[in-house]
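Thread: quick sanity check before group meeting

JM: Hey all, I'm pulling together slides for Thursday and realized we never actually wrote out the predicted structure for the chain we discussed last week. Dropping the sequence here so it's in one place. If anyone has concerns about the input, flag it before I start.
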Amino acid sequence: MTQNKRTRRLALAVICFAGALVFLLLTNHWFLSPVVVDAPAKADAIIVLAGGGDRTTKGAELAQAGLASVIVYADPGRDGGSVTANRFCNGRESLPIEVICIDPQPAKTQGEARAATLLAQQRGWENLIVVSSTDQVTRAKRLFNRCGDATLQMVDVAHASSPLKRSVYEWGATLKSVTLKRGC
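JM (edit): ok, ran it. Output follows.
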C-alpha cells in the first residue's frame, strides 16, 4: 500500500471518528441531558405539551406549588388515561388555578407552540413555564422562540420510551424543524 493511500484512509478514519463524536455529543447535549432545562420560578402560565412521560402530573405539581395562575394543557387526550390532561379538562379533577385546554392544529409540537404563543399574546403573558419530555425540550424551546418572544422556562419529565428510540425520533424531528418547517 502506498503512503498516499494510507494517509487518505487515516484521514477518512479521523473524519468518521470526529463526525461520530460530534453526533454523540450533540445527542447528549440536545436530547439526553439538555442544557435548556430550568428550575421553574413564578410565571404567568404553565404550558403542558402533549406526549410521553407524565407531563400532566408535573404541570399539576407546578400549579399546586403556586408558580402560575393559569395552566394550559395542549392536546389533552381523549382516552381518559391517567397521564392525559383529560381528567383536568373534563372536570373530573380540579386544580387551584384556571385550567385551559387547547386542541392545537396540527397536533404536533409546532402546532402546540403556535397555539400556546397566540394564547400568551392574547392574554399578555410574558413568562411561560413549558413542560415537555427531556428529549423534546430543546426542540420545543426553539419552536416557541420562533413563534413569540415570551421568556421561557423549560421543565422536563422522563419519557416512557427508551432514550435511544427517543433520540432517533428527535433527530428526525429536529432536522425537519430546521430545514422543512422553519416557520412558527
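AS: nice. The first helix runs from residue 3 to 32. The CA atoms of residues 114 and 147 lie 6 Å apart.
JM: adding both to the slides.
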